[in-house]
Specification:
Two copies of one chain form a homodimer. With about 200 residues, chain A is of the alpha+beta class. The first copy, chain A, is about 30% helix and about 30% strand. Chain A has helices spanning about 5-25, 80-90, 155-170, 180-190; strands at about 35, 40, 50-55, 70-80, 95-110, 110-130, 135-145, 150. In chain A, the strands form two sheets. A five-stranded antiparallel β-sheet of chain A has the order 3-4-5-6-7. In chain A, strands 1-2-8 form a three-stranded antiparallel β-sheet, with no helix packed on it. At the A-B interface, helix 1, strand 3, strand 4, strand 5 and strand 6 of A face helix 1, strand 3, strand 4, strand 5 and strand 6 of B.
Chain lengths: ~200, ~200
């Protein structure tokens, strides 16, 4: 083989590698927040494939709720890149999206009369860490399951004030209830990012 | 450019592509069951990054349990490749691993006195679909959180008989409680893979 032919093959290999790496980078979608109009959040449709960090039953702070109504499950999912970052640092990176999914609970007499399992979707909310917002965080409500919005505006200032108050006074790490996310709680403890009192 | 040079570049590109695709395939770890001694299951350590399919509170079938004890949460995670396959077919592929994680529940008076959230790990069990087993499925118990085993033998025949009985009579799809996994339940309904009665 001539030197020129060898060079041509080497160039070809390099081009092939560069082409495929570019293709791979393009195919890997960012899992961070997607906005329309700058700050309206597009509802993540694949959040059920994100990382589940924790949940509870009946953990509502809806004071108007009738205590006789069946309790609801809350499931919290976080975008994988933010999860990986938290596991290394104990803090949330810019671009963190936490989805709070609310589901009705039901009982099943076949397995256990007293236990409750997760049933139909009730609604979807989200909390986003983005340094462009005044507080660094924004809160979104995509509404009830029967009329879910594809995009949501950030909650208005008066509502956010209540979100921020509760998510400041009662949260273990930054604006998030890491005390309810047991695997993250352990990491935050090791990294020293828990607020005093936790 | 001569025809030979062009050909050399094309060959180079093809080689580069093949090389990178091979590399990518090698780097992508299989998320299916890993065994020692043929059938002893290695406990998956990354299952919290798998897909969460559902869970419940107090859904125990432990008849010996004191009903006054605080109920436990059960979280079910499935390996991502099996999840993707189920979402397309409504059935579990060979190599499905379902991890059942049990967690203690606690109350939090800051947010809600009546609600319960997930706390410390209690134990880990797994169910694997593998055509090498007589029933096509095997059940594993990795024990309690304070003494988790790194590998577990398949549960012995007498115990498995009870597992299979309950996981046959009461399950919505194959040997699995898809009736408790709301997003999968919808897919199984669409694909017509639900057992009669569900």
């Amino acid at each position: 083989m001539t030197a020129k032919k060898k060079m041509a093959i080497v160039v070809g290999l390099a081009c092939g590698a560069a082409f495929l790496l570019t293709l791979q980078a393009q195919q890997r979608p960012s899992d961070g927040p997607r906005y329309t109009n700058g700050t309206n959040l597009v509802r993540p449709t694949d959040y059920r494939e994100w990382v589940y960090v924790g949940g509870g039953l009946g953990l509502t702070y809806d004071a108007a709720r009738n205590p006789q109504d069946p309790p609801r499950f809350g499931n919290v999912f976080v975008n994988p890149s933010a999860y990986r970052s938290f596991m290394q640092t104990g803090k949330w990176p810019d671009g963190t999206v936490l989805v709070l999914e609310s589901r009705f609970s039901e009982t099943d007499e076949l397995v256990s009369e007293r236990g409750r399992y997760q049933a139909k979707l009730r609604g979807i909310e989200a909390e986003v860490k983005d340094s462009r917002f005044p507080d660094g965080w924004a809160f979104y409500d995509f509404g009830n399951a029967d009329s879910l919005r594809d995009t949501a505006e950030p909650l208005v200032a008066e509502v956010v004030a209540r979100c921020v108050e509760c998510h400041t006074k009662n949260t273990a790490v930054e604006r998030t209830f890491v005390q309810f996310y047991p695997t993250l709680l352990e990491v935050a403890r090791q990294k020293g990012t828990l607020k005093p009192g936790f």
